Prior knowledge:
The chain is an all-alpha fold. It has helices spanning 2-8, 17-23, 25-44, 52-61, 63-77, 85-102, 107-132, 136-155, 164-171, 186-213, 220-242, 254-272, 274-284, 286-291, 296-322, 333-343, 355-374, 379-404, and strands at 159-160, 180-181, 184-185, 324-325. Keywords: Cell inner membrane, Cell membrane, Membrane, Sugar transport, Transmembrane, Transmembrane helix, Transport.
Amino acid sequence: MAEQTKAVHKEPETASLKDMVLGNARAWGIYLALVLVIIVFQFLTGGRLLNPNNVVALFQQNAYVLIAAIGMLMVIIATHIDLSVGSVVAFIGGVGAYGMAHWHLNWMLAIILMIAIGLAIGAWHGFWVAYVGVPGFVTTLGGMLIFRGLATVVAGESIPLQSREFRAIAKDYVPNILGWWGQFDGLTIVLGLLAIVFVIFAQFKKRKNQLKAGVTAEPLSWVVLKSVVAVLFIGYFTYLLASSGNAEQGGIPIVLVIIAVLVGVYWFVLNRMVFGRNVYAVGGNRKAAILSGINTKRVDFTIFLNMGFLTSVAAIITLSRLASATAQTGMEFEMDAIAACFIGGTAVTGGVGTIPGAMVGALIMGVLNQGLSIMGVDAAWVKTIKGLVVIAAVAYDLLSKRKKG
């Protein structure tokens, strides 16, 4: 009997390295595109793009894209669109600055007020889309006009920001509690090493679970290759952050911590929670989702509520960085967020998209902005180049699907 059991037992299969490389070529293409864009601009800027302080500035100046792209990703996956992001950022920032300047609000109370307004605006959009049936395009187009007008009423020409604590959100660094190790920030080095250990552990644990479950597992060579690439990237990024700043402060900017927390939370929501699966189901086939018992109206409402929250966070960071509120703040923010999603592989037709892809798309947009700015390229040409990149990304996605079909 034991011999029969032994004969029936079958070792778990492992895919070949060639299959893994070819099978993941499209998914990894966006990462290679980011690397290529960085290399090109590093050359064109004479090595200034990857200056440590320029890397920090890349995240500080483009934080609004990274944050708004998270919410826009979920909106697009569910086959909607939000055109009001920039106007809402201007309005929320105007109210926050007005409250601190004229109502003498504490900076923390101002943040709570701004988030509450963002949630209210998200609920407003969600109500019209989910329960009245007005298309998201029309609802948020109206919102774009409404809140740009209200921003003009509230902010007028300009409201300067006096709170040093509020301005520190976008400009300061995490306190250097471990001191300087030579010319490097000690805390950044420790966190970088922990990130490397975590990534390696996660990769090998994933393969172990695949073997244990009896499913086709990744080859060991592929796991090692991914781990080596991750170690090199994290190591170099840690070096850049650890050597940034000045003698008083440096290392990890506060805004990067905010982005990292949001990315982690929303990655978990989309990949590990029922709500995330419902978002993909609604975007993939709304009729099938309804038949399977998913409350699509609640999903749509929650998506726009969430968009309002993330837009308020983007408004807080934008107001902190600019140190003043104007009616023109946030112009074309929604375009940058939408472009980041499409460049990152989010399907125009909905149902497909990932948080890492959207973040890479946002970084490509950020590198374009940063690199062209360092080179002194006129703003009109910057918009032209970004527009061409967006069209190319969407065309590539559609042609790839057509070829696959």
